[in-house]
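Supplementary Methods. Inverse-folding protocol.

Structures were first reduced to a discrete structure-token string of length 224. This string, shown here, constituted the complete conditioning input.
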């Protein structure tokens, strides 16, 4: 899978992509992530990519031309399954959307910034508008990082033991059961006896009951 991220602040995402599981996934060739600095596609000498809004509103708006030039340069080279724009008024990102996007061959994520982007880009080039929750961020970079992380970690081979991506909270609409490691007794805080029993069938049953109980208590909406 290939992910192209377009932003005016690539430094915000760069370090995040290079570390840990995402960094290893790229080194292993399981995903190919490219950052594009929108300013490289600026048409003005000062490399600015925004301008005053028509109508006299406050703030600045990202111009059509740099975005169109950047997206066109990419789409001339390969087909993209989705051209995503990050925006607080987009469709809410969730696990099913991450699952669906992880099956794509190529996607573009355009990070929103400033007051917004010229609406004609959204009308003519964007195929999907996504928000990561009901709050406002200064820019779409964190949203792009969140989406990329959630999409890449479920690509087969990215997480060591493939079982673990499937047993996540939300993957089956249930919250995950608690986990423990050594020591079995820490300052008198004890690990549940059943987990030390070695009885795999009973342990599985305990895990499911814990998941159901935690979901019922913490996120009853997931059971509806
Ligand atoms: Cl995708 N962008 C911005 N700027 N704020 C957000 C968001 C996106 N999702 C939630 N808040």
């Amino acid at each position: 899978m290939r992910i192209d991220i377009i932003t005016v602040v690539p430094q915000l995402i760069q370090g995040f992509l290079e570390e840990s599981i995402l960094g290893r996934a790229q080194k292993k060739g399981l995903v190919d992530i490219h950052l594009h600095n929108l300013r490289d596609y600026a048409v003005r000498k000062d490399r600015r990519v925004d301008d005053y809004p028509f109508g006299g509103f406050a703030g600045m708006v990202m111009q059509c031309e740099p975005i169109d030039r950047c997206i066109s340069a990419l789409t001339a080279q390969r087909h993209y399954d989705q051209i995503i724009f990050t925006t607080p008024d987009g469709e809410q990102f969730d696990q099913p959307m991450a699952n669906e996007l992880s099956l794509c061959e190529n996607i573009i994520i355009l990070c929103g910034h400033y007051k917004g982007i010229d609406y004609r880009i959204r009308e003519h080039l964007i195929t999907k508008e996504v928000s990561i929750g009901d709050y406002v961020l200064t820019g779409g970079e964190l949203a792009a990082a969140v989406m990329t992380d959630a999409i890449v970690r479920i690509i087969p081979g990215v997480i060591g033991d493939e079982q673990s991506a499937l047993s996540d909270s939300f993957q089956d609409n249930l919250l995950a059961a608690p986990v423990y490691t050594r020591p079995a007794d820490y300052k008198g805080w004890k690990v549940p006896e059943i987990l030390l029993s070695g009885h795999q069938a009973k342990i599985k049953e305990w895990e499911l009951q814990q998941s159901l109980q935690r979901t019922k208590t913490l996120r009853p909406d997931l059971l509806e």
